[in-house]
Design goal:
476 residues, alpha/beta, 11 strands, binds glutamine
């Protein structure tokens, strides 16, 4: 998709201004119903497009992403644009600087169409926790697009954007990608700078692309990844040897692990069948499959739901309604600081955010810290070791991305635990920091997308993408 658009742009069959204009027309036509965007960036986008057009006209060598329109999850800062995290507490906040990923994409000439809806502060799996509205799944508008990067996924899936940026703390790129039939890539922890991403759980958060193909995702990843002085946890991921030597990656040399704990009761039969179907196709290309076991799998979700809220409670302490976007028109008298906190944090944070702040504060409190937080950290280490062991036997892991296809709007809103369970297959990659992606592999009989998850060893991002590209071709 991106390379085709790039060819058209440099051959001057279409101008960047026309391309961007076309996407805004689509947004106008479709977004009233889909509700993927919270803020549009039309004037600036068109101005940027003109600059790219000038460069192309003058015969300048523009990069592959120059003039390509994209959307940004509204928890990533873009200077001069509102950044709300879909929360009332930041309703009027305008970003004062660009996130590193935005700076890099700007330099590459990519053009921001707007900011997309999410579950408040990225906490959720459906966008129903947005303080503004629920985004609809383009495949069935009575269903959720997934979350928390649901606006980004819906925007790309309904062709209102070429690609989008999301963030993934427990599955928020892969799960909406699975629900919307897209490629969603969660890089190795630290492979992409978090500078300018509103922190949810800093030891788990990572930014990545939602795109129409693996090739697109790889192009975007190449631009946004790398060590950044503004994020001390960032690092360069190595480019694999076969890429440097320009030799081909061979599917017949690949050993896939099928963790038996991921093929369990509760997995929708249609998803299971489609995955078996994919495995058979890969076997016909001489890929090797091996059943493996990750016995700690049942502990991944509970471990995540201790560590994540602990970090959330600490990260969200900064929203005191004085900094970032002061709330000035108080409907109530404020006499003490305590009053201010109670009334602003109590009223401007949604239910799910408050639940996690309270849970996190609890597990970090004296007397409970050892029993919950410290224990969860130990379990985290054990889970990491378990994955390391498995990767001594197999090259990549192949699992479903989600236990079910996209669910109905409202279906899980009254049951937080049911909602949390939709992350059951995705959280381990965040706990371990491993790279993982969703690859669309088909549809249910109701025409809902089905996704496959591939998980790779640490820093294997480029190999993972290459392998996924081959699988994508085989499935075509
Ligand atoms: N759905 C998960 C949660 O609610 C993951 C969120 C995310 O990855 N940002 O925490």
């Amino acid at each position: 998709m991106i390379s085709e658009l790039h060819q058209k742009l440099i051959k001057q069959e279409i101008t960047a201004t026309q391309l961007v204009g076309e996407y805004f027309t689509r947004i106008q036509e479709k977004d009233q119903e889909i509700q993927a965007f919270v803020t549009l960036n039309k004037e600036q986008a068109l101005a940027q497009a003109e600059k790219i057009d000038d460069k192309i006209k003058q015969g300048e060598d523009v990069g592959i992403l120059a003039g390509i329109p994209y959307a940004v999850k509204d928890n990533i800062l873009v200077k001069g644009l509102k950044c709300t995290a879909s929360s009332k507490i930041l309703e009027n906040y305008t970003a004062a600087y660009d996130a590193t990923v935005i700076k890099k994409l700007n330099q590459a000439g990519a053009i921001i169409l707007g900011k997309t809806n999410l579950d408040e502060f990225a906490m959720g799996s459906s966008t129903e926790n947005s303080a503004f509205f629920t985004t609809k799944n383009p495949y069935d508008k009575t269903r959720v697009p997934g979350g928390s990067s649901g606006g980004s996924a819906a925007a790309v899936a309904s062709e209102m954007s070429v690609f989008a940026l999301g963030s993934d703390t427990g599955g928020s790129i892969r799960q909406p990608a699975a629900f919307c039939g897209l490629v969603g890539f969660k890089p190795t922890y630290g492979a992409v700078s978090r500078f300018g991403l509103m922190a949810m759980a800093s030891s788990l958060d990572v930014i990545g692309p939602l795109a129409q193909s693996i090739e697109d995702a790889e192009m975007i990843f190449k631009v946004i990844s790398g060590k950044d002085l503004m994020d001390s946890t960032s690092q360069d991921v190595p480019v694999p040897l076969n890429k440097i030597q320009k030799t081909e990656y061979r599917i017949q040399d690949t050993v896939f692990g099928l963790p038996k704990e991921y093929f369990i009761k509760g997995l929708a039969p249609e998803i299971e069948a489609q995955i078996q179907n994919t495995i058979a196709k890969l076997q016909s290309q001489f890929a090797t499959f091996q059943e493996v076991s990750l016995p700690l799998t049942p502990y991944a979700l509970p471990c995540y739901y201790i560590i994540m809220p602990a970090e959330v409670s600490s990260n969200l302490a900064r929203y005191d309604s004085i900094r970032y976007s002061p709330i000035t028109n108080y409907q109530f008298p404020i006499t003490t600081l305590r009053d201010l906190y109670f009334k602003t944090r109590g009223q401007c944070f949604g239910k799910e955010v408050r639940r996690r702040v309270i849970l996190g504060t609890y597990v970090l409190s004296k007397g409970y810290y050892d029993a919950y937080y410290k224990k969860a950290q130990k379990v985290r280490r054990l889970i990491r070791e378990e994955f390391n062991e498995v990767f001594k036997k197999v090259d990549f892991l192949l699992t479903p991305t989600t236990p079910t296809p996209a669910f109905k709007i409202g279906e899980k809103t009254s049951d937080p635990l049911a909602m949390y369970l939709s992350d059951i297959f995705t959280v381990a990659a965040n706990i371990t920091g491993l790279p993982a992606l969703n690859l669309p592999i088909g549809f249910t009989k109701d025409n809902l997308p089905i996704g496959l998850q591939l998980i790779g060893p640490p820093n294997s991002d480029f190999q993972l993408l290459e392998l996924a590209k081959i699988i994508e071709q085989i499935l075509e």
